[in-house]
Amino acid sequence: MLIALLPIGCCVIALLLDRLFGEPKYHPLVLFGNIASSLERRLNNRQSRINGLIAAILVMALPVSGVVYLQLLLSNIWLQSMLNIAVLYFVIGWQSMKQHTLAISNPLLNSDLNEARYHLSMIVSRDTSQMNESQIVGSTIESILENGHDCVFASIFWFIVLGPAGALIHRLTNTLDAMWGYKNEQYCQFGWFSAKLDDWLGYLPARLTGLSYALCGENSKGALLSWRNQMGQHKSPNAGLVMASGAGALGVIVGGPTHYEGVFVDKVYLGVGKAAITVDIKRSIGLVEKSLLGWLLIGSIVIVYLATL
Asked: pTM to 2 decimals?
């Protein structure tokens, strides 16, 4: 029975390490990003999707094959668990996300919009220089809800399904999508494969995350209505679902028109109720953490049940 619960135990320990130590000072994803940028400069001719596919395979091959090799090499279940915990700790970035968002909400509470805009620019690609308080709050909540999926739930999902290699593949793909997934002249063709793979890998976890937000939030009906009515209006089939459900569960509205690199983008509004205010940032963090607790509890129950069959 204890052996059956090891996957959940690995998740719990990795999350505790993330809570205690946050993001490592020298994070392997930084090296990964540097290598990916170097490959992009050499292979991106702005015309070929094949080059983007080759670059993605090349940059992910070594870390993923390394983890698979270690899985096969380690015969002791406790050593395998240590590998699982290490990989999960590096792919889960929840504590770092919380710190970034609190660095936005605290200045807002002191009416320091410039400081809040600066810290928001660290986690979003949109232009924050002219944002008002409502836009800053909405963008922050969007990031929290989306990253709850990207940095926590999807990684845990693929770890349970495919082990540490699955969690790593998702996290690396998500990183490449963040780097190359822009619909502009430079990345439209080169980043196509990374963006599509990220959508495919996120399909099931996003729907489980949206359901979790709906069940754990204060407005389950609003979450489900937002999910149904708004997800199709967003450019991302996964992020739109997650943010609509989360905002609806909180009873707030986020999104709306914004600017990316000086270009106006008429983004849809997501959620129901009132416009989000600063205190809703901490509420959105709480929603993600309640959902995470639910995942761990349900996962434990399911694994124990399967172990008794």
From this structure: 0.92
